[in-house]
Amino acid sequence: MLIETENWPYDFPLSEDFVLADQRGTVSDRLLVSDSYLSKTLVTPNSTFIGLAAPGDVGSWQIENKGYQFWTQTDSEGYFLINNIIPENYCLYAWVPGFIGDYKYKDYIYINPGMIHFMLYTLVFNPPRSGPTLWEIGIPDRTAAEFFIPNPQPKFEDQFYIAHYKEKFRQYGLWDCYTEIYTNGDLVYTIGSSNYQTDWFFAHVNRYTYKYVHKHLLPFRLFTLYALTDSSNYTLQLALTSANEAELQIRINDQYADVPHFSTGSIGRDNMIARHGIHGLYRMYTVDIPSNFLASGTNVIFLKQSRGSSHWSGVMYDYIRLEGPPSND
């Protein structure tokens, strides 16, 4: 396999549609991350996913299926090399494990036939950030693998994935385990004492009652603000790793408010819950929370999945972070 990989692209195809190696191009350079709340200097990310795909909006490569894509990962110093690129007009995209958001290079990259090397200047990714981190849940890695995944019902258990891959999520019926675990009420996650690895159910699913009459799940977080800053915005960074026939609504300190503070609208056809997966299309939302919505002391954020068409309607979270008002540093 390694020998064949090294020999690609082959020189023996005679079809005019096959682009030979000497007509393909290469793109290389380095990508760094700028987050002043994390480091005063540029951060060197490791294993960043970076690639060329058809021109489009930020993150559009996820749903592009007509053109070629060429991807690689950076080394420990942030350097990357993409080889054997078919001549075409591209955008360069990236996402960095450990950081939220998507990167897109500002200019188009056109690979001409026979172009040996296309070098860029050092690229700098500025991930979404409005202020200092007050609390966070999960790991920004575009999967729900770090959250609590229950043991499947014995009659559905597939030992193959557990024994060989140590993957508990590839099991049928895990969506029903939520109702079995939270029999008397929904998930409550308390900032400062709860642990997302043991206390955050991996999928925000509907609970069922008799004959699968679905109710809408209301998980929420309790957190305390002692030094509330007046006339300032707080920010909730919300990254989803999957959504299926869902609508996620956010309410602040009033779960019965007629109008939610924020709604994603109808999102998702990923079907990862039914397919026993932990990630689909990545979605990122930045939600402003004016200080007049918050109290000095205990606050509650309610997350409601407001659509209940089936027990496979729901979302999976990648990462949630509450940021304070911007600092003056």
UniProtKB/TrEMBL annotation:
Highest taxon listed in the record's lineage: Eukaryota
Keyword entries, A-Z: Signal
InterPro entries in UniProt: Carb-bd-like_fold, Galactose-bd-like_sf, Polysacch_Lyase_4, RG-lyase_II, RG-lyase_III
Molecular function via GO: carbohydrate binding
Pfam families, sorted: CBM-like (PF14683), fn3_3 (PF14686)
Stretch forming the signal peptide: none
Transmembrane segments: none
Start and end residues of each Rhamnogalacturonan lyase domain: 47-114, 133-322
PANTHER family reported in the protein's UniProt record: RHAMNOGALACTURONAN ENDOLYASE (PTHR32018:SF6), RHAMNOGALACTURONATE LYASE FAMILY PROTEIN (PTHR32018)
Name the UniProt record assigns to this protein: Rhamnogalacturonan endolyase
